[in-house]
Amino acid sequence: MWPELILKAKRGGLNVIQTYVFWNIHEPEQGKFNFEGPYDLVKFIKTIGENGMFATLRLGPFIQAEWNHGGLPYWLREIPDIIFRSDNAPFKHHMEKFVTKIIDMMKEEKLFASQGGPIILSQIENEYNTVQLAYKNLGVSYIQWAGNMALGLNTGVPWVMCKQKDAPGSVINTCNGRHCGDTFTGPNKPNKPSLWTENWTAQFRVFGDPPSQRSAEDTAFSVARWFSKNGSLVNYYMYHGGTNFDRTAASFVTTRYYDEAPLDEYGFAEGTKMGHLKDLHRALNLCKKALLWGKPNVQKLSADVEARFYEQPGTKVCAAFLASNNSKEAETVKFRGQEYYLPARSISILPDCKNVVYNTMTVVSQHNSRNFVKSRKKNKLEWNMYSETIPAQLQVDSSLPKELYNLTKDKTDYVWFTTTINVDRRDMNERKRINPVLRVASLGHAMVAFVNGEFIGNYHKHIIIIIILSML
């Protein structure tokens, strides 16, 4: 599966594959590692290189990614005095130990670009700015430690921290979002490039959500905008999301992950997104000399239209991006003595500062439509089923339900709490025709009720529930 998906990405005009490293997959039990089969990280990186592409290694080790426990293994919770993602000695010890192991594995196989391998970037931590204030001074010192620890591993390639304005030293702070060309405040030092680690091609879904929609045109506009404003790298999150198998997804996140990405859950091209972005990548590739060597310039063409162009003086190297921010009406503008028509909220790319080869609102690629049909071989298929191990009954003496994760140690998502209420004749209504009613308010997801050992009914909902039962 890996070679096929990587090849499809390459055919779509990509040249870098970005991947997380999942701590709870690779070290499910302390000191016991798993890099076999689908978890063979070295083989995956090698496969990327064998297909002529580069790789970005996002170690985290907290990765979020709508993944169970954010990628942190359960056993970490049972380490005495540990505080996750903080300037905390136990957490830093285990984090550094895991990160060092992964880096050493990559070095041993010569997989970093400094060794001739495909890995050109590595990431430490993940969107820490969103929680840093909660840790106060311990958050500030932790992020400094994490960056310096990573730099000390001497990989020979740059390290990044996404959405981290105070990324230390030479660690590059990067942007995540849908329109980083307009929202990113820039690197925190002038010698750092502008990198976009997550351009959200859609949105992950929780059960009950409608399909997430982001048009090919809007995605293309954001990418063209980014490179027109001196961006150096953009990563699509996701280009292919695939399937969350077993219990790997975070709470309520569907098994189908980013199905509306350029490659859908099954690896098929989605709608027009893959084709339209492929055309964009081809146009950007025509501009690479100007983007790398040209001097950036900005020219206002109208109230809502600007030209951003890169030109190398004394040569014919020149590329221009004509951008319209008018979201309602198309415009015709003049640039260097020539008229150009711009659809509403679009960017035209001119790799020679003269001829338009691409416009973000003009889709000319083939449209693909996915349909489901009944298989003629359906009765011959062999289905695989994942079955959770039923945990042993726990004797919990508590008037309130216990915290689920600590109780089950991440072995199951399900716990049944049982309680018994004894009702004698004095609790009954004096009128025999009126049965007593038991009302139960619960934050649980399901309830089953019995009276005198006889099943009465059940109820299921993801909100506060009230069950009314008639007593016998």
TrEMBL record:
Keywords linked to the UniProt accession: Glycosidase, Hydrolase, Signal
Q: Which reaction does it catalyse?
A: Hydrolysis of terminal non-reducing beta-D-galactose residues in beta-D-galactosides
Specify whether Hydrolase is a keyword of the entry.
yes
Keyword Secreted among UniProt keywords = no
EC top class, as a word: hydrolase
* GO MF, any single term: beta-galactosidase activity
Q: Which residues form the Glycoside hydrolase 35 catalytic domain?
A: 1-283
Q: Report domain Beta-galactosidase beta-sandwich positions.
A: 307-363
Name the Pfam families for this protein: GHD, Glyco_hydro_35
What are its GO biological-process terms?
Answer: carbohydrate metabolic process
Per the UniProt entry, the Enzyme Commission number(s) are 3.2.1.23
Q: What InterPro entries does the record point to? A: Galactose-bd-like_sf (IPR008979), GH (IPR017853), GHD (IPR041392), Gly_Hdrlase_35_cat (IPR031330), Glyco_hydro_35_CS (IPR019801), Glycoside_Hdrlase_35 (IPR001944)
Q: Which family does it belong to?
A: Belongs to the glycosyl hydrolase 35 family.
Q: What is this protein called?
A: beta-galactosidase
Species name for this entry?
A: Populus alba x Populus x berolinensis
